[in-house]
Write a structure and sequence with these properties.
heterotrimer, A alpha/beta (386), B alpha+beta (78), C alpha/beta (292), B: 78 residues, alpha+beta, Alpha-Beta Plaits, two-stranded antiparallel sheet, C: 292 residues, Rossmann fold, eight-stranded mixed β-sheet, 8 strands, 16% strand, globular, disordered N terminus
């Protein structure tokens, strides 16, 4: 379906990433947000709080991130598209409810504008050190989707994508910004509403008698109902059967948890987005994401100017990880160079997917700033000598 | 004729005794028989005393008993 | 197979997921009794069941959500109230009931309890208080009376307990009552009254946990506890909530303590937006359907 024009601020704007993310959420149809203030993410919901009363929706500032991350799910089951926004310390508090959303298949978006950690860390300075937490932070086996914008324009475009993926797969989607992307101001073009495709909720058309809340029809994603429609359905974070009833047996656990994983894993090729450049003749591939990809671009250009055969793979989708893409490249290239604002997170995934067929070089940075392009260039030069 | 009667779902009973204790007209007693879980469900010992007040139903934590009013036949006859 | 001696239906039956019976609650546990009163209140207040959603947290009382035939949400530990807040704000037409235990609502969920009362979110909260963490084995709760023995205070508790009616009144609740599982009709009436209120309503129900609280404190079984409630409860409607704290073996003050009016969250929100934004304000109920 097309975007509700009420929420679409069509035009050319000069916005920072946080504000662009908010506009993306509104364009995607988000009409409920629950938040708790935390630097450097708060501007997203500040703008939402100002905008949403004029488009027909609600923002509530909750008492903490635990409350925000579950209130938004109440909003979803009440019939809204909903999201919350936070940064590292708040993201840590939200972990249980990411698990709840995964288990109950509540479509929603968690925006994490990453800052330096651990703990309170660097409130106003960037990092990309929540990437593994986004994937593994809640307990138990589950899958999520994570997207990594590298510009305010992408903060707009990919926020819509995040909501669409959440609805299509009934999964919590992590929107992994970072402080620099959140606070950088650039041109953002917002198209007319009729040019914005939004994914409707996978709402059941079945009668009350025929509806089973967690029954699937081939595609592994069950149909949803909302409270107040007469379905009288039950939702629980306990292991549950197709009726949504608790069932504490290994076969039901196996069936449910495998489906929660497989609905994402089996669709990884369709979900995974990346930006590629000059991979055809590359010996070295720089794999990066978020703000680091913009620093890496300069290093790649400099390396090309020196005659080095370097290509770019920018991860737009971090989770599910593009295993296949990395494996295909690993068969042809000498090395992957992976700069990131952490001491080695996604590089481990690159290494795993490369499976020994190509060398993997981490260019780590503890956060608080961005890499100097020369650090990445040096790593490229070093890798090309192998 | 009794003004009410009691319905019992024996298999749901866990023999807490609330219904027996709080029946205002002492209609019930715990039976010596067992249900399949090994509990002694209540049984009706004074059916004629039942007023159909459903206090047993309101107390029963296992949704295993309730009382209902029985329509009294004949107008005016006492 | 059920041995139904008589086909006269139990009035609670239409509100239950019959295919999930029997429930997991222990013999003599009072939670089921509170559900009877809840069902009678739904009948008496003629609530449209399709517009009614019930939200529970975790614990023995948290299992209520799984047994009632309503749109029902068994959420995470302590978070029934914020979930219910989101549900109510996204769909203001819903009647939202929070049905959970003392540990869930006042310990891990204590922050949400006071803030929802402060905001006066239009929620009906039924708090079954068995004075203990029951599901996990009888550990000390914020409601455990001083000197009671628990699995984590084997030599007796010494920390003061919360007086929940006092707490929620101070935080802003518009309706506050307490009953025990002995007071089934009064409880049903209170729940009906709460449905007539707009705003944060809180009904505490003192309930036996014979397996973990009464047994460890040598108070007998569920029936003995019900007799204790009958003998030692004192109905004091309008009692100052500062005077209704519970003690180990003492009097239990029950009744309707608070019944007052102040605008609920959504009423205040709309008034504010109308005043400031005028015609630019679009009510949240005019939200476009997300289903395409």
């Amino acid at each position: 379906m097309k975007a509700d024009p009420h929420g679409v601020l069509t035009g050319t704007h000069f916005l920072d990433g946080d504000h662009a993310c908010c506009e993306g959420a509104l364009a995607a149809g988000a009409r409920f947000a629950a938040g708790y203030p935390i630097t450097p993410s708060t501007e997203v919901v500040e703008r939402f709080a100002a905008r949403v009363p004029t488009v027909g929706g609600t923002f509530i500032q909750m008492e903490d991130e635990l409350a925000a991350s579950i209130a938004l799910q109440g909003g979803v089951w009440g019939g809204a598209k909903a999201f919350t926004v936070t940064s590292g310390p708040g993201f840590s508090l939200m972990m249980e409810h990411i698990g709840y959303a995964a288990m109950t298949e509540t479509p929603c978006v968690f925006v994490d504008v990453q800052r330096g950690g651990p703990s309170t860390g660097l409130p106003t300075l960037p990092a990309q050190a929540d990437m593994m937490q986004a994937r593994w932070g809640s307990h138990g086996d589950y899958e999520i989707i994570a997207l990594c914008p590298n510009s305010p324009q992408e903060c707009f475009d990919l926020t819509i994508k995040a909501f669409n993926l959440a609805e299509e797969y009934r999964v919590p989607v992590m929107f992994m910004m970072d402080e620099v992307v959140g606070h950088m101001t650039e041109k953002v073009v917002i198209p007319p509403a009729d040019q914005i495709e939004v994914t409707p909720r996978k709402h059941t058309r079945k009668s009350v008698e025929d509806y089973l809340p967690y029954q699937t029809n081939g595609d592994m994603v069950p149909e949803m109902a909302h409270a107040g429609e007469g379905y009288k359905f039950h939702v629980t974070g306990l292991t549950h059967d197709e009726r949504g009833y608790p069932n504490m047996t290994p076969p039901v656990q196996d069936k449910l948890v495998r489906r929660l994983q497989n609905k994402i894993r089996s669709a990884a090729d369709r979900i995974c987005l990346g930006e590629e450049d000059r991979l055809d003749d590359a010996d070295i591939v720089v794999v990066s994401y978020g703000i680091t990809s913009r620093v890496a671009q300069r290093a790649i250009d400099a390396a090309r100017n020196r005659g080095l055969r370097v290509g770019k793979l920018r991860l737009i989708t971090a989770w599910p990880f593009p295993d296949k893409k990395i494996a295909d490249l690993a068969a042809h290239v000498k090395a992957f160079v992976v700069p990131e604002l952490n001491l080695g997170q996604m590089v481990r995934e690159v290494q795993r997917a490369a499976d020994g067929k190509a060398k993997t070089v981490a260019v780590s940075h503890a956060g608080g700033g961005v890499h100097n392009p020369d650090e990445i260039l040096n790593a490229i030069v070093e890798a090309s000598r192998c | 004729m009794a003004k009410g009667r009691v319905s019992i779902v024996v298999e749901r009973c866990k023999a807490c005794g609330f219904c027996v204790e709080f029946c205002p007209t002492h209609v019930l007693a715990l039976s010596s028989a067992f249900n399949s879980k090994g509990y002694h469900p209540p049984h009706v010992v004074h059916p004629e005393k039942c007023s159909g007040c459903d206090l047993c139903g309101m107390y029963c934590p296992d949704f295993a008993i309730n009382g209902t009013k029985v329509p009294q036949s004949g107008g005016g006859a006492k | 197979m059920l041995n139904i001696l008589d086909d006269t239906a139990n009035p609670v039956e239409p509100f239950l997921r019959g295919d999930r019976m029997p429930h997991i609650w222990c013999p003599g546990c009072g939670i089921g009794t509170t559900v009877n009163s809840f069902a009678r209140a739904l009948i008496d207040s003629k609530i449209d069941l399709e517009s009614l959603a019930l939200v529970s947290g975790i614990g023995c009382t948290g299992r209520v959500a799984g047994y009632v035939k309503l749109d029902s949400f068994h959420t995470t530990h302590g978070r029934a109230i914020p979930f219910a807040t989101g549900l109510k704000l996204a769909n203001p037409k819903l009647n939202v009931v929070v049905y959970s235990g003392d540990g869930d609502l006042s310990a891990i969920g204590g922050n949400h309890l006071i803030h929802a009362a402060r905001r006066n979110i239009d929620l009906k909260v039924i708090c079954v208080n068995n004075l203990i963490y029951a599901m996990t084995g009888g550990q000390t709760a914020p409601t455990t009376p001083s000197h009671a023995t628990t699995s984590t205070n084997p030599y007796g508790t010494f920390e003061p307990a919360f007086n929940l009616p006092h707490l929620v009144e101070a935080a802003g609740a518009v309706y506050v009552a307490r009953w025990t599982t002995f007071h089934v009709r009064q409880l049903a009436r209170s729940i009906s009254e709460a449905f007539q209120k707009k705003g944060f309503s809180f009904i505490e129900v003192i309930s036996p946990c014979p397996t973990l609280y009464q047994r460890r404190n040598k108070m007998g079984d569920g029936l003995d506890t019900m007799k204790y409630y009958k003998e030692r409860s004192k109905i004091k409607n309008g009692a100052p909530t500062s005077e209704v704290g519970l003690t180990l073996n003492g009097e239990i003050v029950v009744g309707k303590f608070v019944d007052r009016d102040r605008p609920d969250y959504q009423t205040m929100m709309r008034a504010q937006y109308v005043e400031i934004l005028g015609e630019r304000y679009i009510e949240e109920s005019e939200m476009e359907c997300v289903c395409g």
